[in-house]
Amino acid sequence: MKQSVSLIPAPTVTQPGGYVPVAYADRSTPRTALAEIAVEAVGKGWKITLAWACGKPVQDIARETDKFVDACAVLAPQAADAPWMTMGAPGKAVEGLLWRPDKSAPFLIQAEGLGSVKRTVAPASAKVTGEWRNGRWQVMFELPEWPALEKQRQIALAVWQGQEQERAGLKSISPGWLAVE
Questions:
Q1: CATH number of residue 103's parent domain
Q2: Closest by CA position to 140, among listed 126, 131, 128, 122
Q3: pTM above 0.85, yes or no
């Protein structure tokens, strides 16, 4: 599977708490409009490549509390009808990997709805590399296996642009689950 995906802004109205829906109510345009994704089965594992335009990369925010780092994530549902936009739902979990350029290893993420994301260090066998060149990020995830992706054959993606003050639920996302052939 290889395709360009028009991204949408994650709806701020669904964000938990009261601050984000009010402060960012005008976020009706994605800060990243388009991403390319390629998903390839490699033996029992997966190679997933994401790429998107990013004019001013934010790769490190050490000791800077008013800045946010670029990032991306790939998700797969554990249940066929798990909603992607709300990060799953109770009993319908999603799982995935989160990459940030300021970390040496990806994070494993699991969630069953908004505000429930659990982030841990991914297994050492999960590899991710990212490179910013000529105004674009390209991030490659290499996983020895991913049972949820193998079973459900669906994937979703999210992109954060630090320069645009994106973090947590402020992000650009795929408009739904993408079928993986």
A1: 2.60.40.1190
A2: 128
A3: yes
